[in-house]
Every structure is written in structure tokens, then in C-alpha cells.
């Protein structure tokens, strides 16, 4: 699918606030053929490939998308309170710094409040953001706001957390890993290491977020193929807010409620460390555990592997780097430039404690919250967490 869009002129900014105050829900379109607007950049057409599947090696250099005109970009985060979000913000800002013509980089944190997330996007549009990259924790509740921003001429690119709607129409594109496949792959590995039987739990993040639901759907697919496995949370992912402290509390409650838990699939390795401590505090055998990678998650395996024989771990990339692709696509759309980078990225297991060639990577001189697959260098991670 190919789309084209036009960059807003500065003169149009006064119109934006008025558009955002309207209550009508307009779908907008990125393929409109009206090129009669005024101002520099008006009428510039771009070809953005939407929905392509690829791998991390397909990501291109940002220089192809910077353009020449001054431009303002923004990261609208639905929740900025954990290490994954902080690393992702750092990657976004470092990537934006590579374009000399990006004169302003804005950031908002909705603090897990959907109404604030809506207000944040409206505010960024009113401030003149040409590109808004956003992690949509509030799901479809954000779609009307994103549609209005798109109609106002802003290049909006959701990543990882989807608002629903139609990429290439309601917004430029949606960038993520194949979320359901991520959940299914980790669940398949976990169930295999469980011996094909036992009690399984899937830990998610903020209640109701679309990302955790997608991972859960993949876990369900895997469980359906193994009748001797019981998914204890069959109604949906267990909410942990992606925070280690809350994860510890939640997992402690699950241990009290169910007793034996043989396997856990989590969509955040950084939060999983709290759950591991809950098993330790309860004096229960550690389960087979899979998640995305985190330094402390790997280090804890080395700490307990000799005393917890049932405890094995596997991870896929925490893929913070996808925010760079979201920025690339937004810049290309705003500047009237083509972009054919993949939208959806296939991930594979990168750490497997049962595979001598994929042993967990623990860096003792890095902070516990560091993510080695994030896209930041070791030195950048050290500086971020000082």
C-alpha cells in the first residue's frame, strides 16, 4: 500500500487548534489529492510503504528522510515511568539529533491517563509539531484524536501500542514487532521447557493496553495446541503496569491463589524481576520464564540457576529500536519523501539458558535496567542510568 501526505505550512497552525476543538470524529486521509495548500512544503507527495514485514537489518539511515526545511518532532508517550520507556525516549532523541533541520524535539508523558494522552496529542498539534510518534497505551480511545491530528496535517506514527483504525489512512503507519507471533513463540518455548504440561501465566502491562492483549492472543494460540497446559489467567493478561514492584505484588497474589505455577510468559523482562523475587520470598520453585530481554533478568538467572533447577529463561529483543523507524516514517511523510522500511518486524529468541550458543547476557558493570538489545551502546546505557 502506498500513501502520500502533505506537510503543514506554518500559516496553517492557527487552524489546527480550531480543528482539535471540534467534536466531530473525522477519519482524515493521507492520500488526499488536493495540492492547493499554501506555504513551503504544501503539496509535497510522499510514498510510504505500509504494513511490510521485515527484520531489524532492513532499517535505513535517517539521513534519507530528514529533508531540508526546519521541522518539529514529538514523542507522545502514554506512560514514561519505566526503564523501557526511558531508553526508548533516549533512542528517539538521539535519532532526531542526527537531522540538523529538526529544530525542536518535544516529549509528553501521559502517566497512564488516557484523558491526559488525548490532551497531550492535542497540545503537541497546537504547538506546531510536524511529526508525532506515539506509544498508544489507551488503545482505540486515542483513535479519534489521532484522526483529527492527521486531518490537521500532522504525520502521526503509532508504535508498539496500536490505536486501531487503518494505517495509511488514519495515520501514516503503525510500527511494531509481530506481537501475536512474539507471544506464541515465547509460549511455545516455555511450554516445551515445562514438559508440555502444567500451569502457565501470562503477565502483561497496563490494564487494557492493546500490546499486552496481542501477546496474550499469541499465548492462547500456543496453549490451545497443548491440552495438558492450563492458562490460569484465561480472561486476559495479568496487569502489572510494567513495574517491578507491582509485578512482585501481583505474582505473590498468584502464588497464594494457585500454589503451583510452572511457567510464565511476560511482555516485559524488566518487570519480571519483581515476579522472580516473589517466588523467592514465597520459597517456591522458580518457573520456566520467558520475556523480552533485560540485564537484571539475565543476571538473576546466573544468580539462581544452581539452586533452582526448574528455572530456565528465554528472551526476544525488547526492540526499543522500532521507535527510530516510526520517526523515519513520520519524517518521510512530513517531508514528502519515500520510505519503504518494514512496518512489522519479525523477532526471534536471542537468549536461551538451555542453548549453549544463546546464553543470557549479564553485564555486571551496567545498571540492572539496561537493555542490551535496545539499540543504545554500552556507554550510552551507562550514561543514561547514571
Molecular structure report:
α7 crosses α8. It is built from 11 helices and 15 strands. The chain has 386 residues and is of the alpha/beta class. It is globular and about 60 Å long. The protein has 2 domains: 2-178 and 320-347, Response regulator (Rossmann fold, 3-Layer(aba) Sandwich); 179-318 and 350-384, Rossmann fold, CATH 3.40.50.2300. The strands form 4 sheets. Strands 10-9-11-12-13-15 form a 6-stranded mixed β-sheet, with helices on both faces. The chain has a 4-stranded parallel β-sheet with strand order 5-4-6-7, sandwiched between helices.
Give a quick precis of the structure:
Helices cover 35% and strands 16% of the residues. It is of the alpha/beta class. Helix 1 packs antiparallel against helix 3, helix 5 packs across helix 6 (210-224) and helix 7 packs across helix 8.
Write the layout of secondary structure elements.
Layout: E1 2-3, H1 13-21, E2 48-49, E3 53-54, E4 71-77, H2 83-96, E5 102-109, H3 114-126, E6 131-135, H4 143-151, E7 155-158, E8 176-177, H5 179-193, E9 198-203, H6 210-224, E10 229-231, H7 244-258, E11 263-266, H8 269-282, E12 288-292, H9 295-304, E13 313-316, H10 322-335, E14 344-345, E15 349-352, H11 378-384
Parallel strand pairs: 3-14, 4-5, 4-6, 6-7, 8-14, 9-10, 9-11, 11-12, 12-13
Antiparallel strand pairs: 1-2, 13-15
Helix pairs in contact: 1-3, 5-6, 7-8, 8-9
Order of helices and strands: EHEEEHEHEHEEHEHEHEHEHEHEEH
In the CATH hierarchy, the third-tier topology of the largest domain is known as Rossmann fold
Shape: globular
Total discrete domains: 2
The CATH class name of the largest domain reads Alpha Beta
Number of strands: 15
CATH superfamily of the largest domain, please? Response regulator
- Largest sheet: spatial strand order: 10-9-11-12-13-15
What is the count of DSSP helices, taking H or I runs of 4+ residues? Answer: 11
Amino acid at each position: 500500500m502506498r500513501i502520500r501526505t502533505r506537510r503543514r505550512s506554518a500559516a496553517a497552525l492557527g487552524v489546527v487548534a480550531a480543528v482539535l476543538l471540534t467534536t466531530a470524529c473525522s477519519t482524515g486521509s493521507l492520500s488526499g489529492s488536493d495540492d492547493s495548500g499554501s506555504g513551503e512544503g504544501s503539496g509535497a507527495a510522499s510514498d510510504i510503504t505500509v504494513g511490510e514485514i521485515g527484520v531489524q537489518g532492513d532499517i535505513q539511515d535517517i539521513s534519507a528522510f530528514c529533508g531540508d526545511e526546519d521541522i518539529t518532532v514529538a514523542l507522545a508517550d502514554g506512560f514514561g515511568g519505566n526503564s523501557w520507556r526511558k531508553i526508548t525516549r533516549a533512542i528517539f532523541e538521539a535519532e532526531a539529533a542526527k537531522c540538523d533541520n529538526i529544530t525542536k524535539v518535544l516529549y509528553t508523558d501521559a502517566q497512564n491517563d488516557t484523558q491526559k494522552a488525548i490532551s497531550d496529542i492535542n497540545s503537541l498539534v497546537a504547538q506546531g509539531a510536524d511529526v508525532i510518534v506515539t506509544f498508544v497505551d489507551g488503545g482505540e480511545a486515542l483513535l479519534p484524536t489521532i484522526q483529527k491530528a492527521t486531518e490537521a496535517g500532522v504525520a502521526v506514527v503509532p508504535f508498539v501500542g496500536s490505536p486501531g483504525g487503518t494505517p495509511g489512512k488514519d495515520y501514516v503507519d503503525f510500527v511494531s514487532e509481530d506481537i501475536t507471533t512474539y507471544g506464541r513463540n515465547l509460549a511455545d518455548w516455555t511450554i516445551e521447557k515445562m514438559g508440555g504440561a502444567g500451569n502457565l501465566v501470562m503477565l502483561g502491562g497496563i490494564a487494557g493496553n492493546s500490546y499486552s492483549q496481542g501477546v496474550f492472543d499469541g499465548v492462547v494460540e500456543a496453549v490451545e495446541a497443548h491440552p495438558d497446559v492450563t492458562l490460569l489467567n484465561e480472561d486476559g493478561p495479568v496487569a502489572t503496569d510494567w513495574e517491578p514492584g507491582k509485578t512482585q505484588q501481583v505474582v505473590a497474589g498468584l502464588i497464594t491463589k494457585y500454589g503451583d505455577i510452572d511457567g510464565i510468559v511476560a511482555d516485559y523482562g524488566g518487570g519480571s524481576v519483581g515476579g522472580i523475587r516473589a517466588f523467592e520470598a514465597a520459597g517456591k520453585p522458580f518457573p520456566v520464564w520467558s520475556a523480552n530481554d533485560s540485564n537484571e533478568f539475565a543476571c538473576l538467572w546466573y544468580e539462581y540457576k544452581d539452586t533452582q533447577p526448574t528455572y530456565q529463561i528465554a528472551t526476544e529483543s525488547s526492540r526499543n529500536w522500532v521507535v527510530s523507524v516510526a520517526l523515519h516514517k513520520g519524517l518521510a511523510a512530513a517531508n514528502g519523501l519515500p520510505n519503504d522500511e518494514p512496518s512489522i518486524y519479525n523477532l526471534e529468541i536471542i537468549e536461551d539458558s538451555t542453548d549453549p550458543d544463546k546464553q543470557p547476557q549479564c553485564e555486571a558493570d551496567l545498571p540492572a535496567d539496561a537493555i542490551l538489545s535496545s539499540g543504545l551502546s554500552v556507554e550510552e546505557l551507562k550514561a543514561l542510568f547514571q
